[in-house]
Specification:
By secondary structure, the protein is α/β, with parallel strands linked by helices. 42% of the residues lie in helices and 14% in strands. The chain has one domain. Strands 1-5-2-3-4 form a 5-stranded mixed β-sheet, sandwiched between helices.
């Protein structure tokens, strides 16, 4: 639970997270559903295949933290947050992840540090979509939160919310999850799903 709010509702009759909880379409209790990694694992770690994808997501989050990105939020979507086994009789192939990350303190106002390693890590590790798809089975996209450019953040958030809140194939309105970065919480979650 996040406050009095249900973090992750159960699948609806369509096999999707509902776009909002209850019968009031104007409720504030709506997608994205904020949860921690343990809650995400409990809700979606329902098979060995799904647990492997969750371990990969946690590994990607550890990679992000390795360069001191510790403040941020990830939208989690795709067939992973659907009952795709029921809908299409298949496993989810990956997890769609959009990250909004705060720049680590070591790079703020320090262009030499950013230029000597930070930029390469961002481009070659965090946002290299083909590389992260191959090594983590994640479809990853990310932006750096810039408080001096709120219009860019708003534009990106609206785009990803709109994309993630509808199924690509049928255009059905659906919900998705939002998980803040939390290195310690990720390790606790990893212990609940086991594996290497």
């Amino acid at each position: 639970m996040i406050g009095d709010r249900l973090a992750l509702p159960v699948f609806d009759l369509r096999g999707l997270l509902p776009p909002f909880n209850g019968s009031d379409p104007a409720t504030a209790d709506r997608s994205p559903y904020f949860c921690n990694m343990t809650e995400l694992c409990a809700a979606f770690g329902t098979s060995d295949h799904r647990k492997k994808l969750l371990r990969n997501l946690i590994a990607y989050r550890a990679l992000i933290a390795a360069d001191d990105y510790t403040d941020g939020l990830q939208f989690i979507d795709g067939s992973f947050v659907e009952n795709i086994e029921q809908i299409e009789s298949r496993n989810p192939s990956d997890i769609d992840v959009f990250s909004i990350l705060s720049l680590p303190a070591k790079y703020i106002g320090n262009m030499p540090a950013w230029n000597s390693g930070g930029s390469a890590f961002w481009n070659d590790e965090i946002i290299d979509q083909p590389k992260n798809k191959a090594r983590f089975s994640l479809d990853c996209y990310a932006i750096i939160f810039n408080p001096n450019s709120p219009a860019s953040l708003i534009q990106q958030t609206i785009y990803w919310y709109s994309l993630f809140s509808h199924r690509r194939t049928s255009h059905e309105w659906k919900g998705f999850a939002a998980v803040p970065l939390d290195v310690a919480g990720d390790q606790a979650a990893l212990a609940t799903i086991g594996g290497p």
